[in-house]
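Tokens for chain A. Residues wanted.
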């Protein structure tokens, strides 16, 4: 996505300079509650740190050393074949950590973010572990600046939204990582009152969403075939303001990813909000 703000340009420059750090930190981010396991394999004995492999789900940035290593059912022997000093994972499917550590391979597990601050904490942790502490701090500062620039004046204040995790109408409330990003713009989340258990990801009924009549609908499941057309075809949904006004927004892969591209995600949301004003 093309960017035009100074803070976004700064982020891009840092990404280019710190490709290895970016890759390990964000190459395999995932939607909350799901996601790939092996984020990246690094060799830390050389200077600078080299990322030698990432799993089959880790396709960013361009030029990432993508392999056929499974991010969902990682194989200890296959990973060890790359002779890494450090393996970065987002979850342990059972015996991955034990198996790698038995081979003398260090493992850093950085799970899905629960809050925006988790992004900064993980970048700092990885930067310190790989000898990039200063660059990690600069990266976090650029992310904060980018988010602040996009959120200035809370352009979404007074508008409501529905974030669709999947077609069964699971959503994410304002207490979640993704919800906190929306809240920066001042947007009001229709799922908040429905989260009686307080776990952050309630399943809404079609009637609930229709009655809430959000100003904007964001589709995190667009990659799985959901679109403005499929939403409009749902019984009763064509009566909603967002559908009639063309404010059903398919989201790209940055939705739910908790690395530096959260600025890109918020920029997409900001574009949709600004489009309403236009």
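Reply:
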């Amino acid at each position: 996505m093309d960017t035009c703000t100074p803070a976004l340009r700064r982020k891009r420059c840092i990404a280019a300079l710190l490709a290895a750090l970016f890759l390990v930190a964000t190459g395999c981010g995932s939607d909350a509650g799901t996601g790939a396991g092996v984020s990246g394999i690094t060799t830390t004995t050389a200077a600078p740190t080299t990322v030698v492999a990432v799993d089959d789900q880790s396709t960013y940035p361009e030029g990432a050393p993508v392999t056929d290593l499974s991010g969902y059912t990682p194989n200890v022997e296959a990973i060890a074949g790359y002779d890494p000093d450090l393996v970065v994972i987002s979850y342990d499917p059972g015996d991955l950590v034990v198996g790698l550590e038995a081979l003398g391979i260090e493992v850093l597990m950085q799970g899905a973010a629960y809050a925006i601050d988790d992004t900064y904490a993980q970048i700092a942790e990885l930067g310190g572990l790989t000898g990039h502490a200063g660059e990690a701090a600069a990266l976090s500062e650029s992310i904060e600046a980018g988010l602040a620039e996009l959120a200035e004046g809370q352009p979404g204040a007074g508008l409501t939204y529905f974030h669709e995790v999947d077609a069964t109408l699971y959503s994410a409330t304002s207490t979640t990582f993704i919800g906190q990003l929306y809240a920066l713009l001042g947007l009001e989340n229709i799922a908040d009152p429905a989260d009686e258990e307080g776990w952050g990801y309630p399943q809404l009924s079609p009637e609930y969403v229709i009655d809430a009549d959000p100003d904007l609908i964001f589709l995190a499941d667009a990659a799985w075939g959901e679109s403005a057309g499929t939403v409009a075809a749902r019984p009763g949904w064509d009566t909603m303001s967002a559908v009639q006004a063309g404010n059903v927004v398919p989201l790209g892969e940055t939705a739910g990813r908790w690395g530096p591209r959260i600025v890109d995600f918020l920029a997409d949301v900001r574009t949709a909000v600004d489009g309403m004003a236009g």
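Residues 133-151 form the longest helix (19 residues). The chain has two domains: 6-148, 154-277.
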